[in-house]
Amino acid sequence: MKMTQTAIKRGVTFFMIYLIAVGFGLFSLARLNVDLYPKLEFPVLAVITQYTGVGPFDIEKVITRPVEETVASVENVKKVSSTSTQGLSLVMLEFEWGT
After folding, report:
1. Structural domain contains residue 38
2. Do the beta carbons of residue 43 and residue 99 sit within 8 Å?
3. Distance between CA 49 and CA 36 in Å, rounded?
4. Does residue 90 share a domain with residue 50?
């Protein structure tokens, strides 16, 4: 409550403080580097394997599981996920940021 009373009594002082704060904000905004499309590299790797004419269960047994077991030994892997469909195996590796 005391601050609002002081602001009313010393309106010019508070207005000058407000203008200085806005000035610093505009100065900082002008110096801020902003990219419309920044360069961002996601730490993700996809292993896509095709085996035409083979069903999803066979794809998983013959391709997906061995690939998952092999890539699981890679360093800094955060998550391994996979999808097996008709004639296609997709194994996704998600790495820790900064690797």
Report:
1. no
2. yes
3. 35
4. yes
| pTM of the predicted protein model | 0.59
Query: Considering the domain boundaries, does residue 21 fall inside one?
Result: yes
The helix or strand, by DSSP H or E, that contains position 18, with its residue range, turns out to be: helix 11-31
* Amino acid, single-letter form, for residue 44: V
Q: Which long-range contacts (C-beta less than 8 Å, at least 24 apart) are formed by 60-67?
A: 60/84, 60/89, 63/89, 64/89, 64/91, 67/91
Q: Is residue 89 in a domain?
A: yes
Residues 4-53 have pLDDT tens digits of 888 888 889 889 999 999 999 999 988 988 877 778 888 999 999 999 99
In angstroms, the Cα distances linking 53 to 10, 34, 41, 48 are 83, 49, 35, 16
In the chain, the number of structural domains is 2
Same domain, residue pair 87 and 49: yes
* Structural domain harbouring 69: 44-95
